[in-house]
Design a protein that fits this description.
Length: about 260
Amino acid sequence: MKHAIIIPTVVLAVLMTAGRCDAQSAGGQPVMPREKRSAARIPEVHARWFALAGDSIRVEYALPAATERPIVLVLSDRYGPQESLRSLLKVLAQLGYRAYAPPLLSAPEQGFAGVPAARVDSADIVRATRVAVDLLSAESDGARMYLLGFDVGANIAIELAARFPFFKGAALFYPSDTLALARLIDLQCPMQLHVPQFDTACGLDAVEGLRDVFAREGARLHVYFYKDARRFFFNPMHPDYHKLNTQKAWNHLNKQFRAP
C-alpha cells in the first residue's frame, strides 16, 4: 500500500523554491509568494557559535515553535552551505524538528557545474561531535538527536553513528563511496539508506552486497530506492533535482525522526 504524501504544501514550497524563486529579499533569501506566506509562518534561519579546542564554528539552525522537539543534525552534500541547505533547515523546523547544520570542511560552498571531487576531512567528525555533545548537554535525559546526511555528509554521519551511541537514528542519502557503505554494519542506531537508481557510488549494485553482511549479523538493512533519480536528487538547486522522489523521501524521513 502506498503512503500518502504527508508534507504540507507550504512546507514543500520552501524547499522546492530554494534558488529558483522569482523574487529575493535584500539578503538574497528566497521570497515565498504572498499567498503562501499568509498560509503558514516559515521559521527563520539563525546562527550561533560553538566552541572547539582553540577555535569556534558558526552553525546555522532553525527552530520550531515548541522547544521539546527532536534535534536533527544536518550534514550537507559536497556543494556546501547553499541556500537549499538553509531551506532544508526551515522545512525541518516547520515539521517540528530543531535543525542544526554544522559547516563541513569536506564540503565548502561551490557551484553546481559538474561534480567536484569530494573526500572526508576527519576534522569534520570532531567538529560535528562537539556540536552534538554541546546540544545534548543542554537537554534533559530524554532528548533525541538524529543524523541527516547527504553525499560526503552522509559519510560523516555514518562515522558518527558508528562511533557514538547517543544518536537515535540516521537518514543517509547517497554516501559518496563504497567504503562508507561497508561501515553501515557498525552503526549503533536505526538507519535509512536512500539510493537513487542512477548512481555508481551508491546504487543498487553497491547496496546488494551489503544484504548478505546484514543477514549474517541478524541486522536489518532499510533501503529506499528512487526510480529515475540521480545523485543529488534531493537538492533543489542541483540540475538533477527530482521533485516527486524528494516528496517520497520526506515521508520516509518524517517516519524515521518521529520514531520513539
